[in-house]
């Protein structure tokens, strides 16, 4: 009987250990795919196609090949358009073309291996010949880029509702603008912490190092403005 109890305890301990390892692996992998859009426009025009080039990957910095992404957009009236993305195998990217049938704000969503893997900020679509929308302040541009580049797939920021905690929480993080410029241009200068937990402490895992997002200088300046705004 004593041996049976011991075996049960060992089995229970192993089950708990496996559960913890699975949880850590799930947190590290994010439980979803990350999407980074290369050329998200400031606005769209009714009837004029826009092409979106994007990368699908997991937090381990590995681009996903052989995925069949679907890109769909919905406006405030509930109208939806969708298209299948095509692979650009030489670049490990995908491309999708959307043509908006009416003016208004449209929400573009990417389905990859997972449904609703990434949601873009609202895209304003205007009628042909209408005045172009005014340029956003630099920090507001950075807020949009935080989602366009997939930062919210790993980081929590108080100004972004759909952030996730698979990387350091940015809520109270304060870094200088000069350091952020260097880091965003070359994330390899700083390794990820050994352990990252959700804000409520319910799940923890070992994150991967931040990948290079191939950001352009204006994009870096916008993100720096956003991340240093108090």
Strand and helix map with partners:
Layout: H1 2-29, E1 34-37, E2 44-45, E3 50-57, E4 70-75, E5 80-84, E6 86-88, E7 93-98, E8 104-111, E9 118-119, E10 123-126, H2 138-148, H3 177-185, E11 196-197, E12 204-205, H4 217-227
Parallel strand pairs: 2-10
Antiparallel strand pairs: 1-3, 3-7, 4-5, 4-8, 6-7, 8-9, 8-10, 11-12
Helix pairs in contact: 2-4, 3-4
Tertiary shape:
globular
Distance between the termini: 63 Å
Approximate strand percentage: 15-25%
**Which radius of gyration do the C-alpha atoms yield?**
21 Å
CATH topology of the largest domain: Immunoglobulin-like
Please outline the major beta sheet: 6 strands, mixed
* Number of helices in the DSSP assignment: 4
Number of domains: 2
- The CATH C-level class name of the largest domain: Mainly Beta
The ordered string of helix (H) and strand (E) elements is HEEEEEEEEEEHHEEH
Helix content: 25-40%
Instruction: Give the mean pLDDT.
Output: 82
Low-pLDDT runs of 5+ residues are 1-31
The name of the CATH architecture of the largest domain is: Sandwich
Number of strands: 12
What's the CATH superfamily of the largest domain, by name? Immunoglobulins
Structure class: alpha+beta
């Amino acid at each position: 009987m004593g041996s049976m109890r011991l075996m049960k305890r060992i089995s229970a301990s192993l089950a708990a250990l496996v559960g913890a390892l699975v949880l850590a692996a799930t947190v590290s992998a994010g439980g979803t795919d990350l999407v980074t859009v290369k050329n998200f426009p400031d606005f769209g025009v009714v009837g004029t196609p826009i092409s979106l080039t994007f990368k699908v990957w997991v937090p381990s910095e590995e681009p996903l090949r052989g995925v069949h992404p679907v890109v769909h957009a919905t406006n405030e009236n509930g109208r939806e358009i969708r298209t299948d993305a095509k692979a650009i195998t030489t670049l490990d990217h995908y491309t999708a073309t959307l043509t908006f049938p009416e003016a208004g704000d449209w929400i573009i969503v990417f389905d990859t291996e997972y449904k609703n893997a990434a949601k873009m900020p609202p895209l304003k679509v205007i009628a042909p010949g209408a005045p172009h929308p005014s340029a956003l302040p630099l920090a507001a541009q950075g807020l949009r880029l935080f989602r366009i580049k997939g930062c919210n797939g790993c980081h929590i920021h108080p100004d972004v509702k759909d952030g996730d905690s698979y990387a350091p929480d940015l809520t109270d993080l304060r870094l200088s603008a000069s350091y952020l410029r260097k880091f965003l241009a070359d994330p390899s200068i700083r390794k990820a912490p050994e352990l990252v937990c959700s804000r409520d402490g319910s799940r923890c895992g070992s994150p991967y190092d931040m990948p290079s997002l191939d950001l352009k200088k204006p994009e870096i300046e916008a993100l720096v403005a956003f991340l240093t705004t108090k």
